[in-house]
Design a protein that fits this description.
Belongs to the TRAPP small subunits family. Sedlin subfamily. The protein is α+β, with helices and mostly antiparallel strands and 138 residues long. Helix content is 31%, strand content 21%.
Length: 138
């Protein structure tokens, strides 16, 4: 895949961020806030194009949302490439939930799911984005 992934977000049933990582060249401060904002606004419009990025969304049957921000380039963004990335994100999320030490999200709407702090999940997202995994976590 030749798509430049700028950000990957996993949002819980109530829209709370479970995982959000920036893979753009600029990180920290307002650069990271930009991706938090993009992830939450993409919940309303799953196929949103901005000036320099394009956001896509995917909702699982359990109402978990994946938001992907791609860099707009001269290359055409094909649906099959976006679907392949979402399939990989979904498979990594399922593998994360399959860990017996991972707490499942509650059905109680008053209780928000805990953020994903797994190094293995972060490394899988970095691999999907085509970047070296970040340090920290677990």
């Amino acid at each position: 895949m030749s798509l430049a992934v700028l950000s990957i977000a996993v949002l819980g049933r109530q829209g709370n961020p479970l995982f959000l990582e920036s893979y753009s060249q600029r990180q920290g401060g307002t650069a990271d806030l930009k991706w938090h904002y993009a992830a939450h606004t993409a919940l309303d419009f799953f196929d949103e194009r901005g000036e320099s990025s394009s956001s896509y969304g995917y909702q699982t049957n359990t109402r978990i949302n994946f938001v992907l921000a791609l860099a707009l380039a001269d290359a055409v963004i094909r649906d099959v490439d976006v679907k392949t990335i979402f399939r990989a994100i979904h498979n990594a999320y399922i593998a994360h939930l399959s860990n017996p030490f991972t707490a499942a999200e509650s059905d109680n709407p008053a209780v928000l799911a805990a953020p994903i702090r797994s190094r293995k999940f972060a490394a899988a997202m970095a691999a999907i984005a085509g970047r070296a995994p970040a340090t920290g976590g677990e």
